[in-house]
Write a structure and sequence with these properties.
Elements: E1 3-4, E2 9-12, E3 19-22, E4 28-29, E5 42-46, E6 52-57, E7 69-73, H1 84-98, E8 102-108, E9 115-120, E10 123-129, H2 137-152, E11 159-163, H3 167-179, E12 182-186, H4 195-201, H5 205-213, E13 217-220, H6 223-231, E14 239-241, E15 262-268, H7 275-288, E16 293-299, H8 303-312, E17 319-322, H9 329-334, E18 337-339, H10 349-356, E19 361-364, H11 369-373, E20 389-391, E21 394-397, H12 402-414, H13 416-433, H14 436-453
Parallel strand pairs: 7-8, 7-11, 8-10, 11-12, 12-13, 13-14, 15-16, 15-18, 16-17, 18-19, 19-21
Antiparallel strand pairs: 1-4, 2-3, 5-6, 9-10, 20-21
Helix pairs in contact: 2-3, 3-5, 4-5, 7-12, 10-13
Length: 458
């Protein structure tokens, strides 16, 4: 009998249709009575849904980790765009490639000429989609080119994962059905800016949304995202968790407490982020805490508007606005606390990165906030008006509640020891919940369940 490492998936040979099996943990064994193959013998399986989903190699001692072939479809990919969804896609793709899975990223060319770039072993990025920027032609040519490239690359992938319910979701639902491949979605946004509402409001939205939701599986960043899918009558067994994660080695705490009480906002300058509320709250906080400062790091469609509000603020002398940085670790480490005022999110990378760097977080109660600060579900469902509730590593308040935001910032500005304790909790939370190992293990378990659901009956 042969023991397998935790999380390894393997194929049972010797039957008319190979069966995917998952090792549940250390010490899991081959099925009783099954004799492992000779050293160097490759075991494969071709399912009715097409392609080799797992390619395992027995080396005489153990099976190598299963080889899944993913196609990641996303409208933009770093460095052309580095918002939360794009960063999440890159981190997941690179993590899967490091584990031996083949990953292709299909995306727009951005400002560059079409190119194929080898990023790391087992990972290819095809920056080849160039829609025509002319009214409705953009959407038509985007969808047409996505389908064309998905078809061209069909021999290299088995499982399609569309990042965000978007125009490409409807395209790949149709393509995967015609090719007999697995089609999945990873949702990005919730609430007023949700993926579902975006497609519903698009021209032909009802048809696009129906096709997008006709998937083999879904991956969600948060409980809110899961609940939105359930309201659309998606079967619960098709929905799987896939949080954003963080490099805990790169994103790590500072050795000492920050010298200044500077609150940090890092992210897009977009109406979704509700930065005017943050600026109003900070100006009010300065009346009782003249020592505090505010730093805004980012860019976006409201860049000029936000800079104008800063100049008009009575606390303008204590606010600085910096351009977006691709290496935010220094900013997190020097922050007294990280603060957001968003009206909607999926699961903010900024929250996860802040926790990892030991920076306490003050966040509005949007999707992902409770995953970050209340994994045990202990906070009240409804937060009282004017009140910020303490979670693990920070505070949560109702979106739009300026008084609650001021209250949370005041508590941290007043008590340095309290700030340090929340910072310690924040780091511990990141290690326990948002590690690469845990997230990728959850994702692969979900992928396994989706593949299993498409297996032909014996």
């Amino acid at each position: 009998m042969v023991s397998l490492p935790a999380g390894v998936m393997f194929l049972r040979a010797g039957c008319s249709r190979s069966l995917l099996v998952e090792a549940r943990g250390p010490g899991s064994e081959w099925e009783k009575g099954f004799h492992p193959p000779a050293k160097g013998v490759r075991i494969g399986s071709v399912h009715s849904c097409g392609g080799n989903f797992l390619h395992e190699l027995w080396d005489g001692n153990h099976l190598r980790v299963g080889h899944l072939r993913f196609l990641m479809v996303i409208s933009a990919y770093p460095p052309h765009k580095s918002a939360g969804m794009e960063q999440g896609c890159r981190r997941l793709s690179e993590a899967l490639a490091r584990r031996g899975h083949s990953v292709i990223v299909l995306t727009q060319a951005g400002n560059d000429r079409p190119s194929i770039k080898e990023e790391v072993d087992n990972l290819k990025v095809y920056r080849v989609v160039q829609p025509i920027a002319l009214g409705p032609l953009w959407g038509v040519t985007y969808m047409t080119q996505m389908r064309r490239w998905g078809s061209r690359l069909a021999s290299e992938w088995d499982v399609c994962l569309c990042h965000k319910l978007y125009l490409h979701s409807a395209v790949f639902q149709s393509l995967c059905r015609s090719l007999g491949k697995i089609y999945c979605n990873r949702l990005a946004n919730t609430g007023a800016f949700s993926d579902i509402e975006f497609l519903r409001q698009h021209k032909g939205g009802a048809l696009l949304l129906n096709k997008a939701l006709d998937a083999d599986g879904f991956f969600c960043l948060s409980r809110v995202s899961r609940e939105e899918l359930l309201r659309e009558k998606v079967a619960a067994e098709k929905i799987h968790p896939c949080r954003n994660f963080v490099d805990l080695g790169k994103f790590s705490p500072a050795e000492e407490r920050p010298a200044e009480k500077e609150f940090l906002y890092l992210g897009r300058f977009h109406e979704q982020k509700n930065l005017p509320l943050l600026l109003e709250a900070f100006a009010a906080l300065r009346e009782s805490h003249p020592e505090v400062r505010l730093r805004l790091v980012g860019k976006g469609p409201e860049d000029n508007y936000i800079r104008t509000l800063v100049r008009q603020s009575p606390a303008c002398d204590a606010i600085r606005v910096d351009e977006w940085t691709d290496d935010p670790v220094t900013a997190y480490r020097s922050a007294w606390a990280v603060v957001t005022a968003s009206n909607a999110e999926g699961l903010s990378n900024v929250l996860v990165e802040s926790l990892a760097c030991g920076a306490p977080v003050i966040t509005s109660d949007v999707s992902g906030a409770r995953e970050a600060l209340d994994p045990g579900g202990k906070l009240p469902v409804k937060i009282p008006a004017g009140t910020a509730i303490q979670g693990t590593g920070g505070y949560v308040y109702t979106p739009g509640d300026k008084e609650a935001l001021i209250q949370a910032m005041s508590r941290l500005a007043t008590d340095g020891d309290h700030r340090d304790e929340l910072g310690r909790q924040a780091r511990e939370q990141a290690v326990n919940v948002f590690s690469e190992e845990r997230t990728v293990e959850e994702f692969l378990a979900g992928a396994q369940a989706i593949v299993d659901s498409r297996k032909p009956s014996r």
